[in-house]
Amino acid sequence: MCRLLGYSARANVPLAQIMGERGLRDFTGLSAFHRDGWGMAAYDGQQLHIEKSPLRAVDEPAYDELVHRALGDAGLVHLRMATPGLPVEARNSHPFQYGGFAMAHNGAIHPQSELGSLLPPAWARHLGGTTDSEHYFLRVMSGLEARDGDVIAAIDDTIAHIDRNFSADCLNTILLGPDALYAISSHDPERIPWDGLAKRGYTGPPECYFDLAYAETEDAVIVASSGWPQDGWTALPNRHVLVVERDTLRVKVEPLSPRSTAGAPLSLLADVTGR
């Protein structure tokens, strides 16, 4: 389980300026629990830059320096809580990049042993690490080719495929592209990992753990996971995608197809429904 944040602004400004120092401190404080690495991606014009680390964000001077630097007009931040069994190392830190896109994910996809079947033939060669999240990302990227660049259709196809063939508690994602920022809200509220969060010392409201919300100002749009103060923000409905156009900051909320487990293996259906 992880924490996500994405933003798009009218100019190249530091994230600290968009969020304010208090908001930035509150969000970064979540790395006390989500402590298995951090990563950032930002678009400066047409150049996509990525920085990431397997260390805890709150302890790293590099993280603090980057959030106070004008990296670009659109970007994302990821605070990682590794899926059990997946190693904490740089190649597994988010975000992942393919072409002009970068993606960070919150959630887990099971069974891990079957992740290879998530990717079309020949796409496994693009893997840099071992995470379910990178498999998910590359499935979306392969869908862009099949859908002639339609990002929403590629996302919808990928999530439908995972619903049918895997068991996923949360597929929440920030996807950064050349023209827009996408925030995907797709999760099962009944599968929040209560025990695991408690063991880590998490004290926020667990029933809202998978929620995403966004805020609009004259100069920026920001979207983020829960667990820190977001007074006045707008909840992003489950099974929807927030789209923020980089050039105009125009916001759209697009629905995803209703969740379906039709065709999923019986063992996965039992895991999804037998809670």
What features would you describe in this structure?
- This protein has 275 residues and is α+β, with helices and mostly antiparallel strands.
- The protein has a single domain, classed as Aminohydrolase, N-terminal nucleophile (Ntn) domain (Glutamine Phosphoribosylpyrophosphate, subunit 1, domain 1, 4-Layer Sandwich).
- 24% of the residues lie in helices and 27% in strands.
- The protein is built from 7 helices and 15 strands.
- Strands 3-2-4-1-12-11-13 form a 7-stranded antiparallel β-sheet.
- Strand 5 (96-98) and strand 6 form a beta hairpin.
- Mean pLDDT is 91; it is low at 262-275.
What would the keywords be for this entry?
275 residues; alpha+beta; Glutamine Phosphoribosylpyrophosphate, subunit 1, domain 1
Provide the residue-averaged pLDDT: 91
Residue share in helix: 10-25%
CATH superfamily: Aminohydrolase, N-terminal nucleophile (Ntn) domain
**What is the highest CATH level, the class?**
Alpha Beta
CATH topology: Glutamine Phosphoribosylpyrophosphate, subunit 1, domain 1
Distance between the termini: 19 Å
From the spread of the alpha carbons, the general shape counts as: globular
**Main beta-sheet strand count, sense and barrel state:** 7 strands, antiparallel
What is the number of domains? 1
Q: What pattern of helices and strands is seen along the backbone? A: EHHEEHEEEEHHEEEHEEEEEH
The CATH architecture assignment turns out to be 4-Layer Sandwich
Rg value: 17 Å
Percentage of residues in strands = 25-35%
State the secondary-structure class: alpha+beta
Number of beta strands = 15
Reading side by side through the largest sheet, how are the strands ordered? 3-2-4-1-12-11-13
Please mark out the parts with pLDDT under 50 across 5 or more consecutive residues, or reply none.
262-275
Instruction: Count up the helices.
Output: 7
